[in-house]
Design brief:
The protein is α+β, with helices and mostly antiparallel strands. It is built from three helices and eleven strands.
Length: 178
């Protein structure tokens, strides 16, 4: 998935990288659990308090790769759900005022639950919603300096790619302010 954010790459990178900003835009996150270095580097472990459908769940982000203002690849652990999340940044206009932000979520095709498991369709749906909601919230935070109005809504104007193929639809989204 990708979206153009009306903010320079440095601002978008700071929102992705700085724990103090992450707690404001990442959907479901309510605070930090412990200290974490400000700059992401391979091996940085960020622990966050998160609420998923009303249930408190720890969210862990382990940085696997960080190329300043270009790419941030992390392993996410949200309860029993595990995935690899990659954000990519690129200039979207010649003056540098807009950034094209891509996000890719890679996960196993089955996720264990207590007594059962989520099949590949449910996992893909959950991963797609996680990516769409994160991208929407990041865009809202970078453009308006405030968290997304409806973190469970999807975002208008995102190019959806699932497993590297363009999806036939565009994700519908947050209601535009009128």
């Amino acid at each position: 998935m990708a979206a153009v954010v009306a903010a320079p790459r440095r601002s978008v990178w700071d929102a992705l990288a700085e724990p103090e900003q992450i707690v404001h835009w990442r959907p479901g996150v309510t605070g930090l659990l412990g200290d974490a270095p400000r700059e992401p580097a391979p091996g940085r472990r960020l622990r966050l308090r998160c609420v998923l459908q009303g249930v408190p769940v720890p969210l862990e982000e382990l940085v696997l790769e960080a190329a300043r203002e270009e790419r941030l690849r992390s392993e996410l652990r949200l309860g029993l759900f595990r995935c690899e999340e990659t954000f990519t940044l690129a200039g979207a206009d010649p003056d540098g005022g807009h950034t094209r932000v891509g996000v890719r979520i890679a996960t196993a095709s089955e996720t264990p639950l207590v007594g059962e498991s989520l099949d590949r369709f449910a996992v893909r749906r959950f991963a797609t919603e996680l990516a769409a909601n994160s991208l929407a919230a990041l865009r809202d935070w970078c453009e308006h300096g405030r968290p997304a109005a409806a973190p469970t809504a999807r975002t208008r104007g995102l190019d959806v790619q699932i497993l590297g193929h363009e999806a036939a639809r565009v994700v519908e989204a947050l209601p535009r302010e009128r």
